[in-house]
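Attaching the record inline, Q. Sequence:
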Amino acid sequence: MSKISPLQKARAAYAPKLPPALVNGAKVKVAEGAPTTAVADAEKIQKLFSATFGSPVLTFEAGSGDSQAYPAMNVGVILSGGQAPGGHNVIAGLFDGLKSLNPANKLYGFLNGPDGLVKNKYMELTSELIADYRNTGGFDMIGSGRTKLEKEEQFKQGFANCQALGIQALVIIGGDDSNTNACLLAEYFKKNHLPINVIGCPKTIDGDLKNDQIETSFGFDTACRVYSELIGNIGRDANSAKKYWHFIKLMGRSASHIALECALQTQPNIAIISEEVAAKKMTLGAIVDQMAAVIAKRAANGDNFGVALIPEGLIEFVPEVKALIAELNDLLAREAEAFGKLNDADSKIAFVQGKLNAAEAAVFNTLPRGIQLQLCLDRDPHGNVQVSLIETEKMLAEMVRTRLQELAAAGKYNGKFSPQVHFFGYEGRCAAPSNYDADYCYSLGYTAAALIGAGKTGYMSSVRNTTRPASEWVAGGIPITMMMNIERRHGEDKPVIRKALVELDGKPFQFFAANRDAWAVETGYVYPGPIQYFGPSEVCDLVTKTLLLEQSK
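Structure, as predicted:
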């Protein structure tokens, strides 16, 4: 890197904290728990992962200080999936941990994700290179990618490429799908007696890779702080101009952890939680009515402004819209040739309207024209609607406007509604990691090195008790099979790590639910401001509201 900012220069000197078991290096004592099972479908998971199933939970204790020699080894690392703040610190922690085992150890980075493993694209990661990326955001050190490792020919090619480099262990840094692939790879190597161990690290800003042993996925803390700063800025602007309603869509297709955390940090007037929508079987009309009621109530108090948070994946949680999307997927696959011959938007929409079942057609006809077209046109390689491209924030703003006009005609609304729409997504994925993520990620990488030193495979790196000072953190390893269940994917039963959804009986949602009615009417916005890296610990070493509430007694 030829040019760096003053902040990056200062951050390069930051020394991340470590759990006490690792402060003197990755040579640790390993305490083993009882054999484990899967979170669900245990018999099927055991059958699919006969070589790695049932491994115990591992907890590290400080090493004995003896002079045990660790033979030199080569290790490979892969960044997989979407970017998340702190990935570079995972690699830095892995590098430092490996060097603490044996200074002759080498670390190779496979380029542009799992594809690099299969196509043998790699680079050696040196101390000089690592120094340039410590405490920085992004995945640009070695790049990332979304290639899935699930086929035997990929495993064979990956093994051949690792063998040529003398690699004895692989670390895969990714989300639930990537760590599922890590588990498949570990199983293949162990079952076939191939001498490569595989360790995973929990990454995703969406926050849906967590359980009793994995407190949080890295990047969630930083991304939510970036979004909350922006939401706070908009809240203050709304309260200053007093004339706009801001509809803000936030990342989180499969779960609403980001929307909930940002709501806890900023106290918006409206925050929709997809899991609640699904649990209550709320219709799109019910959501619109609920939002319109808040807007009308604020208008009655003279407040024609506000902030509404909307999860990216909301539309898939609305039962009637989910049924519509499924029907559209089937219809457009079945009628692909006829639909492809239509040249203009009006005829495409009319074609779909004439072919849908009555119930789905009724839902389709309530949607704004632009959303109708997006549902018809934006398909992924499997022929499914690309939900992330649907402008849900615009759809709701338009539908709320129509509902308010109906309320006004009935004499139940006498305000002004001027919506502004936003989507906060990529803004948070590569931010410089907060102190929490810098520390947590470095510890995850160091823990991965300790797992490798202990000869373990099929494990996910785990650092727990992170709401407490680092001197009380607990490091260890969790069998990936312990987190798995069977799900239907593309018409087939697949073993996957179960996604963690927002728990409606959990403390974070319950706190939100107890306060949202007051936040709806009051203008009680909180302004978190930008991430602070230097200064008092109570400002710089914050943890998410979600984690604080989950860990509270």
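The first helix runs from residue 6 to 12. The first strand starts at residue 28 and ends at 35.

More tomorrow.
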